[in-house]
Amino acid sequence: MKEINTLEEFKNNIKNRHDGFTNVQLNNCVINVEVIIDYPLGVILVDNCIFNKPLKINQHIGENANFSNCKFKSDVSFSNCKFIKKVRFYSSHFEKKVEFRNTVFNDLADFWGVIFFQKTIFYKTDFLKTTVFSTTVFKENVLFTYSLIEKLIIFRGTKFNKGLDLSVAIISGTISPFDITIANFKCNPDTQDEGLYEDYVSSEGIIVEKNKRETFRILKKHFIDQSNSIDYLKYSTFEQETYYHQLKKKVFRKNPEKDSIQNFIILILNYISNNHGKSYLRAILFTFSIGLIFFYFSLIATENYYFSLQNMTKEAFFESIKYYFNFMTPTHKIEYLENEKPKTFFYIWDFFGRAFVSYGIFQTIQAFRKFKK
Question: How would DSSP label each residue in 277-335?
């Protein structure tokens, strides 16, 4: 590969045009000098090149730009850069910091097979036409902070190894994620300090809980709009789990809010009863287990049954089983244990038992309908 060690050598690979634009064409080169381009560019064709020093382009590019099979081993900046026509990044690696601040993609922006090794912030970046991140890998957090998505942004086979933040993006167009990889990633706690929060989303690439939850809500909404109940359920669960951790901090602090406590209890019950609508087996187990607990307390609240550590007789066991399945019908008659002479607490346990068994049945139905359209 040809080595470029000075700016003079670099200028040998550019061509000034009569219309004031400059074409850049690099092929099989190793660039060992910092390159700052602050003049209007025309066509950019960079193939199979290694940039060992920083690259900065802060002007507009009037024609197509193509970066293929490139490795950027130092910082790269496209801040204040405007791509008038199509720009493509193919099979390229950004190994250090890359900046997209006030960058404008006026036409197609195609990132195919690109790997971002460091935190990436698209800050106030305008995606005015179709933008594609195909088989792209973000090894650290990626944030679309105050970025405009005017038409369509496609994540196809994109891997987010850490976090994704779409919460403060301006989405007037459509987000289309397909076959993406993202986990319920770790994030920072919420902060009430607006200055610190602004540093997080604008400079440090840190994602807080409320932004994480909003990102999952945005993805969830897309999948429900597309009638994709499978992925919808996945991101709905991620959203609820994030909300659970937010509520947990509010509940176990001094003077917790009443609404926070109520919502926290609801989320715990949803998790225990059917794993947020995902597990019908858990729902069935919950229903029969909670029913057994309330049935037992109902049964010993009669004159003929009482708590004992001794073994139950065979006859008493089969009699109890009959009563148990009767109890598991929420509409059972209150007199089904009349022969056992129920006491006052029997009616209390029976009432709450009906409520919890009915809840368990409802959660079971919900879990079975998780793939509904």
Answer: TT-HHHHHHHHHHHHHHHHHHHHTTBSS----SSPPPHHHHHHHHHHHHHHTSTT--GG
Give the C-alpha separation, 325 to 332, whole Å. Answer: 10
Cα angle at 29 between 28 and 35, to 5 degrees?
A: 140
What are the DSSP calls for 225-286, one per residue? HTT-HHHHHHHHHHHHHHHHHHHHHHHTSSS--HHHHHHHHHHHHHHHHHTTTT-HHHHHHH
Angle at 346 between CA 343 and CA 350, to 5 degrees: 160
Length of the chain: 373
Would you report the helix, strand and coil content of the chain in percent, each value rounded to 5?
Answer: 35, 25, 35
Question: What residues have CB less than 8 Å from 72, skipping those under 6 apart?
Answer: 51, 55, 92, 93, 94, 95, 96, 98
Q: Which of 269, 222, 277 is nearest to 244 (CA)?
A: 269
Query: What does the pLDDT look like over 316-372, one tens digit per residue?
Result: 667 778 888 989 999 888 888 887 788 889 899 999 999 999 999 999 998 887 666
- State pLDDT tens for residues 298-312: 988 888 776 654 565
Q: How far is CA 102 from CA 80, 193, 325, 326, 341, in A?
A: 5, 25, 67, 68, 78
CA angle 98, 214, 172 (to 5 degrees): 75
Structure pTM? 0.84
HSE-CB of 246 using CA atoms within 13 angstroms: 19
Distance separating alpha carbons of residues 280 and 361, to the nearest angstrom: 10
Count Cβ atoms below 10 Å from residue 364 Cβ, excluding itself: 21
Find all residues with CB under 8 Å of 117, minimum gap 6, and list them.
93, 94, 95, 96, 139, 140
Give residue 277's region: left, alpha or beta (phi > 0; psi -120 to 50): left
Q: Give how far Cα 149 sits from Cα of 125, 127, 212, Å.
A: 9, 5, 19
* Cβ contacts of 61-70, under 8 Å, gap ≥ 24: 61/85, 61/87, 62/21, 63/21, 64/88, 65/41, 66/90, 67/92, 68/92, 70/46
